[in-house]
Structures are given as structure tokens and as C-alpha cells.
Known about the structure:
Layout: H1 2-12, H2 32-40, H3 43-56, H4 61-66, H5 68-77, H6 81-84, H7 94-105, H8 127-134, H9 144-149, H10 152-161, H11 164-177, H12 189-202, H13 205-212, H14 219-226, H15 231-234, H16 243-250, H17 254-267, H18 282-291, E1 299-301, E2 311-313, H19 324-335, H20 338-349, H21 390-400, H22 408-411, E3 420-421, E4 428-429, H23 440-455
Antiparallel strand pairs: 1-2, 3-4
Amino acid sequence: MISFSDETLRSLASPSSPQGPELHGWRPPVDCVRANELCAAESNCSSRYRTLRQCLAGRDRNTMLANKECQAALEVLQESPLYDCRCKRGMKKELQCLQIYWSIHLGLTEGEEFYEASPYEPVTARLSDIFRLASIFSGTGADPAVSAKSNHCLDAAKACNLNDNCKKLRSSYISICNREISPTERCNRRKCHKALRQFFDRVPSEYTYRMLFCSCQDQACAERRRQTILPSCSYEDKEKPNCLELRSLCRTDHLCRSRLADFHANCRASYQTLTSCPTDNYQACLGSYAGMIGFDITPNYVDSSPTGIVVSPWCSCRGSGNMEEECEKFLKDFTENPCLRNAIQAFGNGTDVNLSPKNPPFQATQAPRIDKTPSLPDDLSDSTSLGTSVISTCTSVQEQGLKANNSKELSMCFTELTTNIIPGSKRVIKPNSGPRRARPSAALTAASFLMLKLAL
């Protein structure tokens, strides 16, 4: 676990620094507010930090680096705690922390990068942690046939109303986002976005995720899911802006820029991992997605189809000119993202992925034989009949150990419960497989050699 955390944190270091993080060592990061305090207590660091802030004011990176004093300040600060500092989403001084982070890292980036490093600490929690909390009110033990007919998004809203904090903040954003300003202005979008941010930042994810990522079997349920963020105010507009212009607008705000960078860091499609997510962590991806709601880049479901999951910001690639390819790439990170789609489906189905250790200890004993259990198909849609009732099933399997069972609920749990998967590869070791037999040719060669030796 320690080595995994180290690798993740190292990957967060800005790849475009003039010297590279490996040349000046790696330090455990502190939050940027604390790093700023440590820098202020050291005269050399504080003076160079003031110099860098003056250098960045109104200048682009090339102009700044052409100034020797600015370059010297940047080199000194790369050795300070400010370089490795990170922030926590929803922390008390989050905006101040992010302002400090970007004051350093904007000077390290070469122009406008497509993917920016996330300023946030990596997520260690997993969906299974949320399932354990959600099982308190998820209708544990419900008949799958009854669960299939229920509206899980409606159930999620009812669960929210049973929690004082969730009910209060949900009622607040509904009231603000539904308040018409004038016949030509349907609502105050700025206030609506602020109320939505407060809801998703302050309400536990076992409530917010159920509302955002609930599993649906019919159009009425899917439409309720789409309406969760009151899209007529928070999402839709008269015209769709160009996606690259929307991204540029988002990056002028430190908070929006950070949430977008975090989404790319945790949800960017990877074809070298089991789940298509960068760190095989669905929880990190869903948290990053929810973190973008309440900004100009707010994503939402594009329709009320219960059989397909397509989300997108309110933008298009019209008028992109020679930047159309880059625009399409940006948009497809939402509309055609297997990591995000799998994460949403996994939550709706109550499944998570359990990764085996990278170097599992060798065991001489053969694993017990287990009856065939179908694995989770890659193209599983959110229209499965299991709904949230499967949450308790998979969780109990993970906690109590697998028992031979061909029930429908158990078959939805991941292949890791019945096979050993080596992370980083597609090799699957079946439980009933044993060591290979020695090659006959090798045995014959040994016998021939022994006979020849006896003859001599």
C-alpha cells in the first residue's frame, strides 16, 4: 500500500518542470497552506516566493523564464515544500491552498497543457467503503424481483430526506436553482452553482452518489437522475459554447481548473488497467466527476435513456477550426470514456474491483476448486435487474469469503472473487490450475546421461 501511494504521489509532480522531480528528490507533500507558512518562516524562501509572484503577474512563461531573477526564484522554490504541496477537496482553506499551488505550477507548465497534474491529494477510499455505509438505508436483503421494479433514484431522494444535512442542503439548491429572476432570465446560475457545490462538498457521498449514479430500468427513473442537478438552470443554455472555449474559461478560475485537472487525473481512460481507470479506483473517478458540478464545466446526462450512460458538459466542437481534433478529444473524455462509464455502472450495480497485491506471496497449496461463476461482462448496462440490493451481497462476500453459490446476485461480483488476477497484465490464473508437468524430453535427457556415466 505504501509503495502504491508513493508511485501515485510521484506521478502528481509536474512533468514539465525544467529539472524534473527526480533530480531534486521526492518529499512527502504537505498541504499548500502549511507549506506557505514554512516558506514564510525562511527568509530565502519567502523572498524568492514574493519574486516569483511578481514575475508571474501579467507575463507568460517564456517572458518570465527569460528574466534571470525569475528563473533563479523558480529554481529555489522547486527545492522548497511549496513545490510538492497538495490540497484536500473541501478543506477549510481550499481556495487559498489552490491559489498557492497554481502560483508555483503555472510557472512550470509550457503553455496550455491538455492534461494538467491534479493539485489534490490522491484518493485512497474505494466504492466498497461507500457500499458499507450505504447498506444502512439501501434496503439490504430486499427481493431482487422487487428491487428491479423500484425507482432507485426516487429511493435515493427519500434517503436524503432522512438525513438532516442532506435534506437541508438539497432543499437549498432546489429552491435557489428554481427561482426565476425575470421572464428572460430563468434563474441566477452563479448562485445555483454555489448551492450545488455546497451540496456535493458537504454531504457524504453515500447520499450524493445514490442520487447521481442510481441504477435505472425505465425512462422515468433515468429522467429523475438527469434532473438531479436541475439542469435547466445549472447546465443548459440557449446555445452550446465551443468546448475548448469552455475549458479556457474554466481554467481562469483556480477552483474550476483544479476540479477539471482532478477529473482528468482520476477518470482519463487507460487501456493498461483492469477497470480502464488510471489507478483502478472507481471511487476516485466518481468523486472527481461530482467535484465538477457547480462550475461552468458542469457535466450531466445528455438524455433520459435507461439503457445507455452518456454524460457531457454543455458544449460542442462547432467552430473549432484547426483545433477540432483537440476539441473532440476533450469532449470524448466525457462522452466516450470507459473508465467513467464503468465507474457509474459499478456503483449502480453495487460492485467494486478488488486488486490483488502486486507481488503476492507464493503458496504451495492449491486453491480450492470453485464451481463456475460468470464474471461481470464488460458491456454491463445500468439496466440490470439487481439494483442497489446487490450492494449488501458483494460486500458480504468480500467480508465473509466466497462460498460456492450460483445465485444471480453473486454472479455480478467481480472475477477477483473466483480467480486470481495479476495487476498490470491480463493473465488470469484459474483456481484449479496447478504447476506444469516436467517436460518428457528433459527426463529422457537426464536418464541417457546417467546410463552413459555408468557405462564409463
